[in-house]
Write a structure and sequence with these properties.
The protein has about 525 residues and is of the alpha+beta class. It has helices at about 1-20, 25-60, 70-95, 95-105, 115-120, 130-140, 145-150, 185-205, 215-225, 230-245, 280-285, 290-305, 345-360, 360-370, 380-385, 400-410, 415-425, 430-445, 450-470, 475-530, and strands at about 150-155, 160, 165-170, 175-180, 250, 265-270, 275, 310, 320-325, 325-330, 340. Among the domains are: about 35-65 and about 70-130 and about 185-225, no CATH class; about 270-515, no CATH class. Strands 1, 2, 3, 4 and 6 form a five-stranded antiparallel sheet that branches. It has a four-stranded mixed sheet with strand order 5-10-9-7, with helices on one face. The protein has a two-stranded antiparallel ribbon with strand order 8-11.
């Protein structure tokens, strides 16, 4: 059965390659395209075999088990883990857009934890292209010899990822620059790989109707198409720089437009280390908590106020640049993937966060209807703040044991059709929000930031995002009144969060005292027994 189902996909991949080959040039360039097509068909074949084995594992390992039983849940987790490991290996072998797809899936909070934890180790790295190939791309784009453009150009890349590599150079005016050069033949490769992923998605949906990945694939294809146009990345970079022109902590590299095309991007060279490099932060006396606070303030303003969101905030795209005496700037790189949030969505998302902080269950459910998720809105508090919609736990603290037990029972009652329905009903903007928030939370965790830092920042940004709209529609006196109202609303939410922080600290101190007493009793007991 699985062999019969694989055949149409292999034929389709081959047909896609033939169609592209028919429209490709002949000669040397034609031979390189033909080579790319053969590699594409090889990647497609590996993908089909891997997905075929994964589907068989799910179908036969879980056959005959009651979906609500403990045995089913244990075996399902094992199948998830086996499948995630197979997909990890596939992404590593196929490279390129498969690595991007694996990273994209791992950052989605709605996928099973076995997938997110396994695929999260994927690194967007690649074997660098030969310098002569990179040199040829630059010279073809500008119609000049390389050293007529640059005074110096380091032949060895400082970074190499799945779609491009970056070289350090120097212009004739002695300006240091970073030059991002796209690998040759990427558009043809993307067409084949996306076509294969689309066929595989349909194949999975055919065998398992409850699994629907079309929306995720569409969003992934959009993001990759945007990322391949470096002029779009340059425009995104300039717009972001404009949004944060009054923020002295945020640094966006300057773009040299005369040396920028769809395939080559030339920017100001900025020094720094990855945002989660704790050893570097310690050596430079920079507080990780302050870095975390600056980072979440940056993205909070992006999401809630500007509605223009960087879609790939992994540590390699955010550098910490020291400025002496513990001060620093955050250098934001790689502006290829951005999402401009729909205005109504942005305002509703601001309202959702205000409701989440206040745990206004009626408002959360009402906004769930606005977002189109209906009954699944009750899971928003769990996704974003780590507590249930009926929670009595203080904001920013762990759920009680009883709440955890009830939530586990509730989640165990969900089937794949529920999860699929939830994913299908989410507005497209939500995918970007979930991915970005997931990546940020991971970085904040690595920096050791308290949970309330994110909650407090998002609360403040949500209120400012709501009042920004009112200010745009109001006169001067009205704007003054709104400033006061914004500050009062923020103070109210801050009091709620600060109380939660104090409760968390009190519980932590209480636990330390209990542990210390327990240790003292054990030591006393051991001493007594020794004397006896």
């Amino acid at each position: 059965m699985l062999r019969r189902r694989r055949a149409p996909l292999l034929l389709a991949a081959a047909a896609a390659g033939a169609a592209l080959a028919a429209t490709s040039p002949s000669g040397e360039n034609g031979r390189s395209v033909a080579s790319a097509l053969h590699q594409g068909i090889a990647r497609s074949s590996r993908s089909v075999y891997t997905i075929g084995f994964v589907m068989a594992d799910y179908k036969y390992s879980l056959r005959g088990l009651d979906a609500g039983s403990a045995d089913y849940r244990v075996k399902l987790s094992k199948v998830h883990l086996r499948s995630a490991k197979k997909l990890l290996k596939l992404c590593e072998v196929n490279g390129g857009f498969y690595v991007k797809a694996g990273q994209y899936v791992s950052s989605l909070r709605q996928v099973p934890k076995e997938y997110s934890s396994t695929l999260s180790c994927l690194q967007d790295q690649a074997t660098p292209s030969k310098f002569q190939d990179i040199k040829a791309v630059i010279e073809q784009n500008f119609g000049k010899e390389l050293y007529d453009i640059f005074l110096e150009f380091d032949e060895h890349p400082i970074a190499a990822a799945s779609i491009a590599q970056v070289h350090r150079g120097r212009l004739h005016n002695n300006q240091d620059v970073a030059v991002k050069v796209q690998y040759p033949g990427l558009e043809q490769r993307m067409k084949i790989d996306i076509m294969t992923m689309s066929f595989l998605s349909k194949m999975v949906s055919w065998v398992f109707p409850d699994y629907k990945f079309d929306r995720i694939l569409i969003e992934f294809e959009k993001s990759m198409t945007m990322e391949l146009d470096f002029t779009r990345e340059a425009k995104n970079s300039e717009r972001t720089a404009s949004c944060f022109r009054k923020n002295s902590v945020v640094k966006v590299p300057y773009v040299f437009w005369q040396l920028t095309t769809r395939e080559v991007l030339t920017m100001e060279f900025c020094y720094g280390h990855k945002v989660n490099d704790l050893d570097f932060l310690r050596k430079t006396d920079i507080s990780p908590t302050k870095v975390a606070k600056a980072l979440i303030e940056l993205f909070g303003e992006m999401i809630f106020v500007h509605g223009f969101v960087h879609g790939d905030p992994h540590p390699g795209n955010i550098l910490v640049s020291p400025e002496g005496h513990g001060k620093f700037s955050l250098v934001l790189l790689d502006h290829g993937i951005y999402r401009e949030l729909d205005q109504k969505f942005r305002l509703d998302y601001c309202r959702l966060w205000k409701a989440l902080i206040l745990l206004d269950s009626n408002k959360i459910l009402e906004l769930g209807e606005q977002f189109g998720v209906g009954k699944y809105a009750k899971y928003f508090p769990v996704i974003f703040t780590g507590r249930t919609i009926e929670s009595k736990s203080a904001l920013g603290t762990q759920m009680s044991g009883e709440e955890q037990r009830r939530l586990k029972e509730d989640l165990n009652s969900l089937g794949m059709d529920d999860i699929s329905s939830f994913m299908e009903s989410l507005p497209p903007d939500f995918y970007v929000i979930l991915r970005t928030d997931g990546l940020l939370r991971s970085i904040l965790g690595n920096l050791g930031a308290p949970r309330h830092v994110r909650l407090l920042t998002y609360a403040r940004c949500a209120i400012h995002g709501l009042e920004k709209q009112h200010k745009m529609e109001s006169g001067a006196i009205r704007r003054m009144f709104l400033n006061v109202k914004t500050n009062v609303s923020y103070l109210r939410l801050r009091v709620i969060i600060e109380i939660a922080v104090l409760l968390a600290k009190a519980n932590g101190a209480k636990q330390k005292v209990v542990n210390k007493l327990r240790q003292m009793l054990q030591e006393t007991s051991q001493g007594f027994h020794r004397r006896m």
